[in-house]
Amino acid sequence: MEEKLQGMHLELPYLEMGSGFLVGLSVGYFLKKSFKIILVLTGLIVVALFVLESKGVIAINEGNLDSTVTAGAGAFKAFAGFLQERLGRFTFAGGGSAIAGFLTGLKWG
């Protein structure tokens, strides 16, 4: 049994990838998961505001709500652009693999 285990090679595809790809993968995965968390929290806040408005506790200015959500989405988009630009500054081969890892992380997240 021990001889069989010594002859087997544990093949994990992640061990064959370069460090640039792994960094990009982790950043892309983190970005997508954090975006989902932000969407859930924003949705909960908006629903709570709508409930409070229907009870007559507060009054919502829809223009301000729209501009706040638009500003938040713009800030998140700028942050994602910053991360992608930063990953692109790896060495040429690492930069390409980092961006490929980033896009893969976005897809998997």
Structure in words:
The structure is a single chain. With 109 residues, the chain is mainly α. It contains five helices and no strands. Helix content is 82%, strand content 0%. Helix 3 (19-54) runs parallel beside helix 5 (92-108).
What is the strand and helix layout of this fold?
Layout: H1 2-7, H2 13-16, H3 19-54, H4 62-87, H5 92-108
Helix pairs in contact: 3-4, 3-5
Number of helices: 5
Strand content: under 5%
Rounded average pLDDT: 81
Q: Helical proportion?
A: over 70%
**Radius of gyration from the alpha-carbon trace, in angstroms:** 22 Å
Find the structural class using helix and strand composition: mainly alpha
Task: Please identify the oligomeric state.
Answer: single chain
Low-confidence stretches: none
Number of domain modules:
1
